[in-house]
Structure formats: structure tokens, C-alpha cells
Design brief:
Length: 347
């Protein structure tokens, strides 16, 4: 289902020139935008039926499963990264010991910290994470791509070190899925918010778990949608949860999922490898324009005083994170966008 050219895919977007902030939120492709408008129109008039909106959740989960190379039965859906990771953290046994990068985005930090003192949490610099995994470590939780800096984690080293001590690996791939090839089966749990690089409405997220880990997670937020047959799970006992990862789902926010499914399918049609080459290529064009060596990320973090104001004056939208400029490049970004930003910063 791949093969759509970048140039053709770009015609499905309508970004204003200079949008370099996908790491904050992605822009929707036309099929996703139109599907959402159609659903909202149906809601306004009451002339449709709600079940198809909910079934878009299943369609989106299947597309995400294909993107990260796992069975759809291992994918749970939710609203936010912290909500999904909260289930994992709350299910840890008393005394569990968790290792997290100290600069980690708090959606993958607060869910663990809130469980203290029932569990122990230790933080270390991300660049020392693999070397810090030892017999103390029961869980290592980290971002595949760091939000503030765009640094790509050394997944090989982290997974190998965790395997030596049989530590559970939990990965936040929110800043990776959509531009970086991701193999979710390499870790025990992978969580992803879809509103950035997956170009979806805010309020949709995915959790991939192995069956072994899932057996230990308590579906504390289960409702009718987590039932084996949701539409016969509206009322009354007994407890009858799904046998697969949907047992961890919450009732879907319909319209968000209507916009998510076609967005993921577009990414799938273009292909992650093609998007990766495009995004990193533009990021390196930006770096070269500023006299910097190439990198391996679609996110570039720089210490340039006043950069945000200089870019804004030229119509370029980027972000400041951790006191540094953060520019990010995706499917709809063009060389002209990059050059506009470079001229604003070096002129």
C-alpha cells in the first residue's frame, strides 16, 4: 500500500509557507480534514448513525499496527500518552524500580513519579541511559526521539542492556512514528500520541503491548468499548473484556478517530522510508544552511538567541523548547520553507 510520491502527497495539504513546527502539532491531509467535516455535518443534523464513527477507531488501530509492524490485536487506543502509560505504571508491583531520562517529556515521567513511594524512580541523562541499566532496573522508560532536542535514542544499546537484566522496556514514540521507521515488537510497550507526525486530531493515541506484559496490566478504565463485543456490553455483569489489547481501550472520542484513520493511511501510502529520507534531508538542508554538520533527525535544536522572533518576522513558525529553537520538518515541508528559515536566521 506504499508508493505515492512525496510531491503528490503534498498536494493534499494546505500549509502556510514556513510551517516548521510538526513537533508541536501536525497538519491534516485533505482526506482526514474532509472526513472530519463530513462527520461533524452529520452530527449537526442527526441524519447519520454513530456506529461508523466508533469503527474508525478500529480502522486507525489497524493502520497503526501496520506502520509499526505488529498485529492489530496488540494495539490499544486511548486519548493521550500519559493516560495510556498511567495504566502501565499503576499496574507495576510494589517495589518496582523504573529508570527514565532526566530530560524526558513529562507524559512519560509523571505517570511513574506519581506512583512513588510505592515504586522507585531514578533519572539519568538520556545519553547515559543504556549504560545506567543494571540489576537495579525493572523498567526502563524513554522516548525514541527526545521532544526538546530531537535526539534519536540508541535503541539497540538500550534494548540489549535491558535484556541482560530482564528489564521491561517502555518507549514513547510520539516524536518518531510518522517519520522514523519504528519496530514496536522490539520493546515490551510502545506508546504514541497521533497528533504530531501522524497528522491526526489531538486526542488520539496508541499503546502496543506484548501479550506477556498485557497480562500484568489492570484495565482500570475499562468500559463498554473494552468488552469482547462492545455492542453487547452496554449493561450489567458479568465482566466480559476483550481477549486482546482492546481490553485496555477507553470509549473513543468519535470525531478525533474519524480524522485519524485516513491520516495514518496516507502516511502508509507514501511509506515511512520515503518520508524519513524527505524529512531528514530537509533537516540537513537547514543545518547546512547554518553551517552545521548533518544529523539523523527530522527535528533540529539550536541555541540561537532571538531565533523565534527573527523567524516569526519572516512568517516562519517554529518553537522554543528548553530555551533552544526547535525546528521540525515533515511531509508537507518544502525546500522553500527551509530556505526561508535559513535566510531569516543568517541574514
Amino acid at each position: 500500500m506504499t508508493g505515492m510520491e512525496i510531491a503528490k502527497a503534498r498536494t493534499l495539504f494546505d500549509p502556510a509557507p514556513g510551517w516548521l513546527d510538526t513537533a508541536t502539532y501536525g497538519l491534516p491531509p485533505l482526506p482526514a480534514w474532509q472526513a472530519l467535516q463530513d462527520a461533524l455535518g452529520t452530527w449537526r443534523t442527526g441524519r447519520g448513525y454513530w456506529r461508523p464513527w466508533g469503527e474508525e477507531t478500529i480502522r486507525a488501530g489497524e493502520a497503526f499496527a501496520r506502520l509499526v509492524g505488529v498485529p492489530a490485536s496488540d494495539v490499544s487506543t486511548g486519548a493521550q500518552v500519559s493516560q495510556l502509560l498511567g495504566l502501565v505504571a499503576a499496574s507495576l508491583p510494589d517495589g518496582a524500580r523504573v529508570l527514565v531520562p532526566e530530560e524526558e517529556f513529562t507524559s512519560n515521567l509523571f505517570p511513574w513519579l506519581i506512583q512513588q513511594p510505592r515504586i522507585s524512580v531514578r533519572t539519568v541523562p538520556a545519553k547515559r541511559l543504556a549504560d545506567s541499566i543494571d540489576a537495579w532496573t525493572d523498567v526502563v522508560a524513554f522516548s525514541l526521539v527526545q521532544s526538546a532536542s530531537g535526539v534519536v535514542a540508541d535503541l539497540d544499546a538500550i534494548v540489549a542492556a535491558a535484556a541482560e537484566v530482564r528489564a521491561t522496556t517502555v518507549v514513547d514514540a510520539t516524536q518518531a512514528c510518522g517519520w522514523l521507521p519504528v519496530e514496536a515488537a522490539r520493546v515490551d510497550a510502545l506508546v504514541c500520541g497521533a497528533y504530531k507526525w501522524l497528522l491526526s486530531p489531538r486526542g488520539t493515541a496508541f499503546l502496543v503491548t506484548t501479550p506477556q506484559l498485557r497480562e500484568r496490566i489492570v484495565p482500570a478504565q475499562a468500559g463498554w468499548w473494552a468488552g469482547e463485543d462492545p455492542h453487547s456490553s452496554y449493561y450489567g455483569p458479568p465482566l466480559r473484556l476483550a481477549s486482546d489489547a482492546r481490553r485496555l481501550d477507553i470509549s473513543p472520542a468519535w470525531f478525533n478517530w474519524v480524522g485519524t484513520a485516513p491520516a495514518l493511511e496516507l502516511i502508509e501510502q507514501v511509506g515511512i522510508d520515503a518520508i524519513h529520507a524527505h524529512d531528514v534531508g530537509l533537516a540537513n538542508r537547514f543545518r547546512a544552511g547554518l553551517g552545521l554538520p548533518p544529523g539523523n533527525s527530522a527535528i533540529v535544536s539550536l541555541d540561537i538567541p532571538g531565533a523565534e522572533e527573527r523567524l516569526a518576522a519572516s512568517g516562519v513558525r517554529a518553537a522554543v523548547r528548553g530555551g533552544r529553537l526547535r525546528a521540525s520538518f515533515h511531509l508537507y515541508t518544502t525546500e522553500s520553507d527551509v530556505d526561508l528559515a535559513v535566510d531569516a536566521l543568517v541574514g
